Amino acid sequence: MARRQHLTSEADIRLPRYEWAFDEQGHPIAIEHAERSRTYICPLCGGKMISRLGEIKQYHYAHEAETDCLPEAVARIAAARWLALRLQDCLAHHLAVYITWPCRLCDLPHSSDLLASVAEIREGHTWQGWTADLTLLDAAQQPRAVIALDLFGPGALRVYAAHAITALSVTPERLRGQPFSLPHLLTGATIYGGACSTQQRLAEQGIAADLPTLRALLTAAALREPYSAYGAVEAQGGAPHILTLGGRPLWLPPALWQRAVGGLLHTISPALQVVTQEWPQNDGSIVALYYVTVKGSNREANAVAVRRFAPGEPVQANLATVPLRVPEVAAIQIAQGFALG
Hints:
The protein has helices at 10-13, 71-92, 154-162, 182-187, 197-204, 211-223, 254-260, 327-340; strands spanning 20-22, 28-30, 40-41, 48-52, 60-63, 98-102, 109-113, 120-123, 126-127, 130-131, 134-137, 143-148, 166-169, 190-192, 228-236, 239-245, 248-251, 264-269, 272-280, 286-295, 300-309. It is of the alpha+beta class. The two termini are 45 Å apart.
């Protein structure tokens, strides 16, 4: 996970240095609920902490021995334990924890129960080389969601998105200066959603929407005669971003194309962008793929082209010269130029 350098602000100076400690059972205790006679432990170093509950100075915890524990790191570990215990309590009592996020595939808001199909919650769990503050696992020990009390690195987000794992990022600023609560922490979180309900609905209707099927169908369209295909990506039957190839509808919004195909973005002009990709085949041929976006004054049009280049044949793109006044016409004509050469 990425770690951000903490810059001390005027607000931080007014905060107690240590607001949280663990009791002897490992439960996080806010300084407001501390007792003078109890023993407390630092969440970070494990050293003994003393609750300072004087009449003059602001309530705070203090290490019994000298330490260099950062208050932000102590608050982060305490928050992770607090969240783990709170979510485990919700699991035990069969309580739903709903989250809402803007879907990056279909641009619509989605809501779901964060604890759906979750069987276990772990702190500091590592999965495929990435460690999250909290990982919510299903009965098969596969992550359903991860929570970071900081920013996610882009590499981690790509891995989680590829496996439809919901990722929540809680900024460190929310961990200081006020009591923890699920609404406070989760409502303010940046949510990178997991499963797209639009994608699931279209798949139930027989529209190709999952990554392996999309890749297979795009390749197949280029490998059968006449070894090229093209078409507009448009709304069909109330569903946006539908491309029909070989009689099969495919759901291809730009964000899903990036996941399924990827490629290099070419900005030809302010009104024209093309994403190109090449997939080498076992026989030495190459399947070239093109995603065309033409932007008009108040609308956007997309089209896709695929083409097979024989072994030894140079991969060349013919960008047809067409007027860009009508995006729908321009997009399909440009895609035709890529497909037919």
